[in-house]
Write a structure and sequence with these properties.
Layout: H1 3-22, H2 26-64, E1 66-68, E2 77-86, E3 89-98, E4 117-120, H3 122-125, H4 133-136, E5 139-143, E6 156-160, H5 163-166, E7 172-177, H6 193-216, H7 220-232, H8 237-268, E8 271-272, E9 279-280, H9 282-287, H10 289-309, H11 332-355, H12 358-398, H13 401-412, H14 414-441, H15 452-455, E10 458-463, H16 471-476, E11 482-489, E12 496-501, H17 503-508, E13 520-522, H18 526-530, E14 543-547, E15 559-564, H19 573-583, E16 589-592, H20 601-606, H21 609-640, H22 643-647, H23 651-679, H24 694-724
Parallel strand pairs: 3-6, 4-5, 12-14
Antiparallel strand pairs: 1-7, 2-3, 2-7, 4-6, 8-9, 10-15, 10-16, 11-12, 11-15, 13-14
Helix pairs in contact: 1-2, 1-8, 2-6, 2-8, 2-10, 2-21, 6-12, 6-14, 6-21, 8-10, 11-12, 12-13, 12-14, 12-23, 13-14, 13-23, 14-21, 14-23, 14-24, 21-24, 23-24
Length: about 725
Amino acid sequence: MTGGGRRLTWQLLRLGHAAHHGAEAGRTRFAALLLASAVLALTFCSFVLASATWDGRAERGAARTPALAESGEQAKALWSRYWDSYEGRQFTVVVIAPLEDDAPLPPGVGHWPAPGEVLLSPALAEAPRAEGFAQRYGKAAGRVGGEGLASPGERLAYVRPTADMLRTADLEKITGYGGHWIPFGDLRVVGEETAMWALLAVLLGLPALALVVAAARTGAAGRDRRDALLDALGAGRGARLCVDLGGAVLPVTLGTLLAGAVLAPALLSDVRLPWIGYTLAAADVRAAIVPVTAAMVLAALTTLGLVLLLRPAPARRPGTRSNRPTSAQAGPLKLLALGAFPIFVIMAVFSGPLLGGAQRSAIAYLFAVAGVWATLPWVLGWGAGRWSAKAAGPARRRGDPALLIAVRTTAARPAAVVRLVAVLVVAIGVLGQAQILSSLLSVMPGHERTPGPAAESAALVRSAHQGELPRAFRSSLPRTARVVALGRLGEGPEAVRVMQAPCSDLSLLDLPCPPRGKQRQVTLGDLERRIQGAGPGPAGEPVLVRPGPVEPLTEGEGLQALVFEPGGSRLDLPAVKRAAHLHLSAKAGVQGLRESAEQPSELSHQSRWIPFLAALGAVILLLAMAIAATAQFLRLARALAPLNVLTGDRRVFHRTAAWSLGAPLCAAGVVGVGVHLVLVQPVTGGAYGGEVSWPLLAAMLAGTALTALVAALVGGSVAARRAASWVPRPD
């Protein structure tokens, strides 16, 4: 580029900045672009941080995975693990014992705990005292460092058992860490990274793009007139793009810097996300500083690109060389959206059969759904333009000025409808998909959750302990707690459940007590609901009840017992767990019936990301809706102001606002809900399908009607006030 060309480009950029800053709604557009670019930059960075978190967890998890001793290798330590639970979530307890003085320490462990001591992760060490983690596995002697945790909020414990308890469990011989064994801790339940990307794209990406679109077209009427004037003066497309770019560079740059300032604290220390409680590791953020910076630059370029792409190119009359501007033609983005919409719908409805189900189908489905909601506003705008062109004649014959003005305006500028309804349509899509995804993740195949009060009154204990129940275990239980041994006779379909305990304990469960050496087959009835899922054997079948000591009943297996509180009172579960870990076995498992392993507690816990991201998306959409509504109110007020002189009837402003603002919003809400019902058909129904929330759909329709009413009232009032003070002025 020559020196003169660079000077001209610089002058055009300065002209664009001055023109946009001093234009009608200039300050509103500046603030909107600043906010939109910041939100888009944070959204892009969320993808990078998700990948960095996955990589960081995998790296730390691999470093702490034990290396099993091969044949002929000298073992350095004994190692094993089992799971415990807290607040409905499972976590790993590692049982470890050094065999030599120079045994390597696990990552995050600064010293070997003494026998009978335990090291806790911060999440367990800071848990409520009622959980008893400081004494549950032994005496707390320190904390696990961050380098030994998959994430800062991971729940993990390293237990060094006493010599007596060490003999109660089978442990693996290891030589060190960094092996290729099965991962443990949070890594065993981490989902696919692509699934999180899909959620981010649907629940954050779409709202962020809607916000950018709303901001880019704020003050569009004045900018379009300026483009038409520049075109009439002979300015080429490049010159007009420079002018538009000049008006957007400063707010977009400031918005990107604002996003960087928001992320800066995450570089310095771990950040705990609100509500969901996940802690973002500062080490992972620092490791991704280069990709984060690139994501912010890409977000800024994307915002600028959308600003330039969302400007209609003034068309010339066919066959002429006139510079006189005419109505804008369909831009490339509109044509692309109209062509892609049916493809996305077909892909969403048939993604399962086309891709064979499983994960590929799920990712394709979410991608197609995002495409449908992204292109639907253009389809609505195109449909509104076609309908308005046909409705102008009947409105003129009926002599309805409000309807005539509305349909003429819509026919001439269908993009205004797109800007108005885009946010509402995306909001319906985000809320609807969040609900259906939560419904899918809450499905529990073949399992019925134990009722609340009953679930809190009993716990299942599994241990390798052989022989009669130790006296120390009984004395450590809550004073009123009782124990019944569980087992089975036979194998396979012929297996029968057995319950055995002293008669005094059996009677507290309303069970009969046969004579010693005898057994009686009974149906548990209401008791079945209380102990549902507890013990071996087919649930719901008759049970053999017999008196006797609490001891292992199933041949070749350890002790399985039910600890319960008489009368359905709440059981002190932490006390039961402490008694089992200290007096039964180093790897004893205690499971409250609410914590049944068949219940997908981890999946339910992970699904909390859906409402969290949906809430963030809803906030972004509210911002976009406010920006779009403000721009539309200003445009409507400016366009209708001269009517005060022509009609003298201020009611025409409210009726025009109802047709221009209220009617498109109502139509978009109804169409959006209908499209949502079509899109969820592949993932609803059947044993494992989600369920549509009809109350949510009704609430969305009611919210749409309320939004349309408020928009019509506010738009009409703003236009009426603007008309009262309107005077002719040069355009």
